[in-house]
Specification:
Blueprint: H1 3-33, H2 36-66, H3 76-83, H4 90-131
Helix pairs in contact: 1-2, 1-4, 3-4
Length: 158
């Protein structure tokens, strides 16, 4: 495994994570503004960036296995330990940079997830108001039995 090839791959990972962070931030703004057209474009960009990150990860793991690293020890933490045995070097600094960008992307993704969740709850509440009460406990059917709590009646059969 060449150091130069690995360094180029890690540099590419860092750049891709920067791109992912930009997309996630734009996605957050789009979610807040409810700009669905922009959101659709951003989701496509995000899928492409994630596919590239996954491809780099696959290539890096393959290179490490070919260099004799056990398959179960090809993640970034093991790579950092392996490359950082001689102390702080360009690889450990690069891996630290990648880890901080990964953390930033996790935080942005979690924020977006919360926004989507809250938006979905608000939509469900609005639909609930439009649909009316969903519980019909205590109402009798045409056969004289009571309805279960989760059953609904159409307005036409009320």
């Amino acid at each position: 495994m060449s150091n130069e090839g690995l360094q180029q791959l890690l540099d590419s990972d860092r750049q891709l994570l920067d791109s992912l962070a930009e997309v996630l931030l734009a996605e957050k703004n789009s979610l807040e503004k409810r700009d669905l057209d922009q959101l659709s474009d951003l989701l496509t960009r995000k899928q492409n960036v994630l596919a590239s990150i996954e491809n780099n990860d696959h290539i890096r793991r393959k290179l490490l296995v070919q260099a004799g690293v056990p398959a179960g020890q090809t993640n970034l933490q093991h790579l950092k330990r392996l490359l950082g045995k001689g102390g702080q070097n360009e690889f450990t600094a690069l891996l630290d940079s990648i880890e901080s960008r990964l953390q930033q992307c996790r935080e942005l993704s979690e924020t977006n997830s919360i926004i989507v969740h809250r938006s979905r709850l608000n939509t469900q509440r609005a639909l609930g108001i439009l649909r009316g009460p969903s519980t019909l406990a205590g109402l009798y059917t045409s056969h004289g039995s009571t309805l279960g709590g989760s059953e609904q009646r159409d307005l036409g059969s009320a």
